[in-house]
Amino acid sequence: MNEILQKDSIFKVGKVISVEGRTIKIEVDKAKNSAHLLYQGKLLRNISVNGFVKITKGFTRIIGKVEGEFIIEDKQFSNKKYTNEKQKIKRILQVSLLGFFSPKGFERGIKELPLINNECFLLDLPEFEDVHNFVKKKDDPLILGTLTHENNQEIKVGVNDLFASHIGIFGNTGSGKSYTLAKIYRELFLKYIENNKFRDNAKFFFIDFNGEYVNDNVIINKDYKNIYSLNTRTEKDKFPISEEQISDYNFWSLVLEATEKTQKPFLKRAIENDFLTQKIQDGDSLIEFVKSLILKIIDKNDDNVNIAQIIDLLSQLGDCLTNSNISQTVLDLRQNLHYNSTTHGFYIGTNNYDGVIPYVEELFGNIEFDEIEDDYLSKVRIRIILQFHHEIINGYSNIEHLSPLLKRTPPRLNDLRKVIVINEEDSDKNITVISLRDVSIQMRKMLPLLICKQLYEKKKEVNEKEKYLNIIIDEAHNILSSISQRESETWKDYRLETFEEIIKEGRKFGTFLTIASQRPSDISATIISQLHNFFLHRLINNNDIKAVERTVSYLDKLSFESLPILPTGTCILAGLSAQVPVMIDIGKIKPESEPDNKTMLLIENWKDELD
Fold this sequence. Notes:
With about 600 residues, this protein is an alpha/beta fold. It contains 22 helices and 25 strands. The strands form five sheets. It has a twelve-stranded mixed sheet with strand order 10-12-11-25-24-23-13-22-21-14-20-15. Strands 1-2-7-6-5-9 form a six-stranded antiparallel β-barrel. Strand 3 (about 35-40) and strand 4 (about 40-45) form a beta hairpin. Helix 10 (about 285-300) packs parallel to helix 14, helix 11 runs antiparallel to helix 14 and helix 14 (about 375-395) packs antiparallel against helix 15. The longest helix has 22 residues, at about 440-460.
């Protein structure tokens, strides 16, 4: 009994003097203004800003966090023997209520508010650990680091609570966000990677814009992961894309940035046209069809559709065929075939109108080329060329509307050919890193969207409840920006809507997103608002802080004010996996497993000899 009374007398710090909603004020006992208290031979940190306080109301224990403190003069002080003006000063704490203790332990949320004069205490060690125990009974703990202000207190989160959620990791460059991303996934992989069920049921895809995670041992050993270093300058690794996806005209609408009203319907007609499928299945059918198009041009005698159209058709077709002599055919036509705009007719030589058709028949009889390659991308280009000329010759479409699409097609297909391969086989490794460091700007925008859409659509279609998909996007502002001006509004809307659907509906299909970015204000507000857990590193820009503030409603004022001054490697963890927002120092990982993004040391490179 004496021990309890002694503990209460030492741990009691003051009483409630004001209750204003979630915010209360506590008057601190004048004997408790020192930095530390002595209890059973141990030094305890006294109550201060950022500390926790327990308020007892009957049998209810309410927990609050100190967000500020100030002093006021005690006007009722009446001790005439006082020797120091300090004795007339009252120390007042401003506290934000966070939760309460129940028979289950600490729970976040407020069921009842304290009363004036309720006593306030420091938390003892079991209570402090209970507040910082974020792991539920049936969950597995994952150690992420230690509490910044209490280095002995490890911070553990539950695997279910953290990874069955959408995660946001934000911080300025050099603040440690990539390190944090690597740390949380390394801890997860080390814990489960040897389990067959984990390898069978969980898939992780890292979209890596800067090549930070492609080195052999970064995050996890190379034996456990697929690495795709995509490159649009030279052919290197190729990411597998299913034939089903590449047969979808929506895929090509994205790749070719087709306009919504004219080019996208045109692509649908070109990709899904069964008539064209028959015409390009072998070389003879193709040549016959092209010849029929050219004879139709000759037969029309139209000033707007004349020799230039014929030359374009054959030249574009020649680019798609291997070992062809079409270039010689084009040269012959340029030299011998003419159009008379007065008589509106084609002729060869000197006004030989009757010899045109036999001449064309003879030329096409001499065309030779290898069989059409078993290359889907080449076939798609042939489809687009034939559909384009078919519609222009017959007057179905306007050449000005479709020509830009036709010009964009060759360079986009060349880039695409270097980075994708049509393959339906699934890898036996469940961790995949896709580096976009060496791809062109257009592909940096496009590929993540294509890859993520394919992964999500496939997962949604199969919808096996035990299967888990996690897409991790580092430097996510590259693909999730809502303010980018380098693309059409239509394409930007489609891009954002795709990711917004994943983040809004993906949970139902076992799909989760982790996004890391240095500019949260650039990212779509809809996407940020759906994140469940946040790791907030140093943010300096006011717009970025406001973007986070608008979204993370349960983050306290003190944490927001700490964001611009957080040291490297320290972050605030807030969200569903943490009962209270905490400032943590992220734990170390082995140097060979760190992401490749270190700030260069200038002196090492500039001095001939280091001291």
